Amino acid sequence: MIKISEKNYLVTIENHKQAIEHPIFELISQTSEELKLNSYVIGGFVRDYLLKRGTPKDIDIVTIGSGIELARAVAQKLPKKPQVSVFKNFGTAMIKTDDLEIEFVGARKESYNEDSRKPIVENGSLEDDQNRRDFTINALALSLSKENFGELLDPFNGIDDLKNQIIKTPLDPDITYSDDPLRMMRAVRFATQLNFHIESESLDAIQRNKDRIKIISKERIVDELHKILLSPTPSVGFKLLLKTELLYYIMPELTNLLGIEEIEGQRHKDNFWHTLEVVDNISEHTDNLWLRWAALLHDIGKAPTKKFGKKVGWTFHGHEFVGSKMVYKLFKRLRMPLNDKMKFVQKMVLLSSRPIVLAQDIATDSAVRRLVFDAGDHIEDLMTLCEADITTKNPKKFKKYHNNFQIVRTKITEVEERDHIRNFQPPVDGQEIMETFNLKPSKEIGIIKEAIKEAILEGEIPNEYEAAREFMLKKGEKLGLKANT
């Protein structure tokens, strides 16, 4: 028996049968015996069990034979007889039962063409199947055969790599990454999620094979980026993507932020490393994936807007507006959703400096009303982003900014309670303006509506119907319009 005693987050291998106590494993074992198949639990389920990462809900079963046949037979034995989803091209089948998702596949060996990550598949042994796995920690398998039920099969010392927190390929890393370049992204993702380090030879191989990432679909890359961003410390992953130079292929908008320029003794901060600090900061306060994306992209407009002036030094005028436009292009290029999620990220990038400006000065009611009006239901997300944007190492400045943000938050609450500006709709609508002045659709209606909105935001009139109607009548009179009596 193998023991792991150095770190308490790993269980001892004597207890590995506990991993497969769920009745589903006994059922798969019995069904495999009836079909004269040897079957194994493999991959992430075993890894996460050994790392005590909760009870995994995704289960991968590899069998020496037909995974599809085994899946169908198991489904027939389950009380609810769940539907079997068959993927013939991949030789896999999936069953969803209770809260488990079980994928069955026949053991196989793979070979690859240079221009595709889709393998040429042949039937193989368990050893062949373990050889094709991406990392040693994902090649761990537990037997479901009656004679050695629960026995751990670990041909690449994956247990030691778990103990030493290492990401390492079972075979030559150059072949592993060249065959399926998505594995390079997965290496970075696992290192980020698990707080492991990528073995040096493997890390070098990723850099050597970085250009192979071009054959991977944007959707697959983004899926890995999502998982990196949702990790406890996303900067770990982005530092690795930079070190391996994958980031230059995936998100040049970020790598363009790298570096510090100095002219006449005046320097600007490195906006790339600042961005990673902001992403880590915000990750301590929210699991909202799209808000984390906003943190990652909030400064991308600084590269194209950077200018130096002798009187003012370095400026990035309009970087929020430029950055919000870049968000659309980036989402489109990476085939990310161009829906409300993209619009949310755009809005956060566009407004990202507004609360910071308020926090540096005395926040007037008018400025706060406009902020709440523009941010709408996302005002709290915007404040979370802006507080994460405070990365100064000066403790006095850090304290001052946070105290000022608390003042802004208090003012937002007060203004919202008094003026009801969030998701503001003018108390007087266009239809009433038309009826009041006997107007057909015309520019005057827009002028009056805009004037009412501005008067409310500036605090000239309260956000109430009677005050807005009276203001409408006066504005109409100034425009030479005659109201109905």
From TrEMBL:
InterPro entries: HD/PDEase_dom (IPR003607), HD_domain (IPR006674), HDIG_dom (IPR006675), NT_sf (IPR043519), PolA_pol_head_dom (IPR002646), PolyA_RNA-bd (IPR032828), tRNA_CCA-adding_enzyme (IPR050124). Its cofactor is Mg(2+). Keywords: ATP-binding, Magnesium, Metal-binding, Nucleotide-binding, Nucleotidyltransferase, RNA repair, RNA-binding, Transferase, tRNA processing. Residues 195-256 form the tRNA nucleotidyltransferase/poly(A) polymerase RNA and SrmB- binding domain. Belongs to the tRNA nucleotidyltransferase/poly(A) polymerase family. This is CCA tRNA nucleotidyltransferase. Residues 274-359 form the HD domain. Residues 40-167 form the Poly A polymerase head domain. Transmembrane segments: none annotated. It holds the Pfam family PolyA_pol. The keyword tRNA processing applies. It comes from the Bacteria. Signal peptide: none annotated.
